[in-house]
Design brief:
Length: 150
């Protein structure tokens, strides 16, 4: 795990209140539609897809705000189901998880105690950057976990 500051991003995104148990359901429903939409309006994806978790806890049934984002090259005039947003810079602790995304919680179980031990205070924002996504249970997935720091 290391610390870094992530540069600002322009994203085309979907925002929804959900729970950890339902994240896959939301993703399966929205991601294909989002890719159809960016193709239709002529946007270019310029970085891996990201999920942003706001006010999320380890409680699988507690609601939080999920943002599913496609990083794009620019904003444009658009009126549709999705929206554009600028994600500001993020000072974070970064860790790379490789493997089955159903087991990503095990990585969080390692990260948070280490942060606390090192006197770091997590913020309310977590991002997951899907650097290489094959399918949900693939051992070849590569995901960067970014835990915001206060």
């Amino acid at each position: 795990m290391n610390e870094k500051t992530v540069n600002p991003l322009t994203v085309f995104y979907h925002k929804e209140t959900t729970t950890l148990r339902k994240v896959s359901e939301v993703a399966d429903r929205e991601i294909p539609k989002m890719y159809e939409e960016i193709q239709k309006i002529g946007l270019k994806e310029v970085a891996p897809m990201q999920f942003r978790y706001l006010d999320c806890t380890a409680d699988l049934d507690k609601e939080f705000t999920l943002e599913i984002a496609i990083v794009v090259d620019a904003k444009m005039e658009y009126s549709g189901k999705y929206d554009f947003q600028e994600w500001g810079p993020l000072k974070c602790a970064s860790s790379v998880f490789k493997g089955d995304l159903n087991k990503i919680g095990e990585e969080y179980d390692k990260i948070f105690p280490e942060l606390i031990k090192n006197g770091k205070q997590p913020s309310n924002e977590i991002r997951e950057v899907y650097t290489q996504y094959i399918k949900m249970d693939s051992p070849e997935n590569i995901t960067e976990i970014q835990i915001g720091l206060n």
